[in-house]
Amino acid sequence: MKHKSICLLGGTGFVGKYIAGRLASSDKHVRILTRNRNNHRDLLVLPNVELIETDVFDSTQLKKHIEGMDAVINLIGILNEKQHNGDGFRKVHVDLPKSILDACLKLHIHRIIHMSALNADANQGPSFYLRTKGEGENALHTFSSDRLAVTSFRPSVIFGPGDSFFNRFAGLLRLTPFAFPLACANARFAPVYVGDVADRFVRALDDKSTFGKHFDLCGPEQYSLKQLVEYTATTLGLNRHIIALPDFISKMQAHTLEWFPGKPFSLDNYNSLKIDSVCQQGAHEPTSIDMTVPSYLGSNNRQTEYDALRKIARRL
Ligand SMILES: NC(=O)c1ccc[n+]([C@@H]2O[C@H](COP(=O)([O-])OP(=O)(O)OC[C@H]3O[C@@H](n4cnc5c(N)ncnc54)[C@H](OP(=O)(O)O)[C@@H]3O)[C@@H](O)[C@H]2O)c1
Fold this sequence. Notes:
The protein starts with a strand and ends with a helix. The strands form four sheets. It has a seven-stranded parallel beta sheet with strand order 3-2-1-4-5-6-11, with helices on both faces. It is built from eleven helices and 13 strands. The chain has a domain at about 5-155 and about 195-220 and about 300-315: Rossmann fold. Helix 1 packs across helix 6 (about 195-205), helix 2 packs across helix 3 (about 85-105) and helix 5 (about 165-175) crosses helix 7 (about 225-235). About 40% of the residues lie in helices and about 15% in strands. The longest helix is centred in the first third of the chain and has 21 residues, at about 85-105. It has helices spanning about 15-25, 60-65, 85-105, 130-145, 165-175, 195-205, 225-235, 245-255, 265-270, 290-295, 300-315; strands spanning about 5-10, 30-35, 50-55, 70-75, 110-115, 150-155, 160, 180, 190, 190-195, 215, 225, 240-245. By secondary structure, the chain is α/β, with parallel strands linked by helices. NADP nicotinamide-adenine-dinucleotide phosphate (NAP) binds next to helix 1.
């Protein structure tokens, strides 16, 4: 079956905008659910995209808005919770996917594509983030049925215009003259390009060979966090000495920043970084950081994203 109308949860975020763009350019009807329609009106430049303000945690609202769609893509996820006990992560990463599944089963929607994370593991995950991502992914796959095909993707860190990885370090490096102290500097990543991730989601939609499967997504190269921060500084032309903090200081920093507004670094982030975010096997996505990062680091991200959306819209 061709899935023509797609409800996109988390479609206003960094990854979601790319997936919305790809879906719009493949002639799909896309319905994006958001907490604040006004903040994301730039998405309406895409044809066939509707933007609906709602509370996805209200199951009645959720059902109302996914009714009649052919498929649901769920990208909603958080890196930090307001609380410190995992309840916030559980609500977003476990309760919401279960509620989406329940709604799809009741409304006879036969397809869900779900965003998890590399190393998500309900039992062994070292952080609430990874454990709850694992629980949500398991719930979807375990309780789906012959009538409902689930595919989940498990990426390493994702980069591209508007990302919160390279752009965040770029901002911090600019604020820190000479030396930049870095927690968890040896953690390893295989950064994967957002356009490659979006392509995998869109291709999976009608591809039966992906039904019921989980896919790890990694880029072509592996780096330590220190190498990636050095790369960011070099790309920006900043002369910074990156100092790898010893583990106990990294942990102390996490304990402290956990209580700062917006949690710039949390104990849960620290725990997630205990395990390398690299793929053990399988094909790697093609786009390297060298192919795109220099073109957007230091630019006005919001404008770059809007230009990208307009380009997709003009192509149709
Ligand atoms: N970025 C990465 O490097 C990376 C790596 C691995 C996995 N992932 C996963 O990929 C997904 C998308 O990541 P992203 O970087 O695109 O995230 P993002 O930019 O933060 O976007 C997430 C979207 O989810 C919605 N959302 C967030 N918190 C919510 C809440 N409490 N209630 C309702 N809606 C909420 C927001 O939509 P509204 O504000 O419009 O409601 C937001 O647009 C997440 O599940 C993330 O865990 C990301």
